[in-house]
Write a structure and sequence with these properties.
The chain has helices spanning about 1-40, 45-50, 75-85, 95-100, 110; strands spanning about 55-60, 70, 120, 125-130, 130-140. The chain has about 150 residues and is of the alpha+beta class. The chain has one domain (about 45-149). This is DUF4440 domain-containing protein.
Length: about 150
């Protein structure tokens, strides 16, 4: 009976170790991606930034469930420059570029939203596409910023 309990205990320990190592691996994988993506944004290297996007990029603009738009690769640079110039939510006097520039490392709250193939950081939603992290969705874009699009 003791041997059986020891074997069960050992199995539970091993299973627990495996279940805890997978999220750490997912988090590290995403953090490596984030570092490259954030560096490209800071350098304003929009060609490199666009390589980390699954086009067409879906963007929520304004309120309501039907208020979304898509951004094609050819329109991305103009769109993203406008996006980075917008005021950053929750940080008066700071634009989105300054916020992203200061977010070189992810904090604990960001890490909570990283799953196996999906991650959300601020207004960005990322997903693994063909084994690579890509930006797939941007939330909370004021309608007036993209009037006429």
């Amino acid at each position: 009976m003791k041997k059986c309990l020891l074997v069960i205990g050992f199995c539970l320990f091993v299973m627990n170790s495996f279940s805890q190592s997978a999220p750490d691996t997912d988090t590290k994988d995403f953090e490596q991606f984030w570092s490259k993506w954030q560096t490209a944004i800071v350098k304003k290297d929009f060609n490199t930034v666009s390589q980390y996007i699954d086009f067409p990029l879906v963007v929520k603009k304004g309120e309501g469930t039907n208020s979304v738009m898509t951004v094609a690769r050819k329109d991305f640079t103009i769109f993203f420059k406008q996006f980075l110039d917008q005021p950053a939510p929750g940080t008066p006097g700071e634009n989105r570029f300054a916020t992203l520039k200061g977010k070189k490392l992810l904090d604990e709250e960001d890490r909570m939203w990283i799953e196996k193939e999906l991650a959300t950081v601020g207004d960005f939603e990322f997903q693994k596409v063909d084994g690579k992290w890509k930006l797939i969705y941007i939330y909370d874009i004021p309608t007036e910023t993209f009037a006429g699009k």
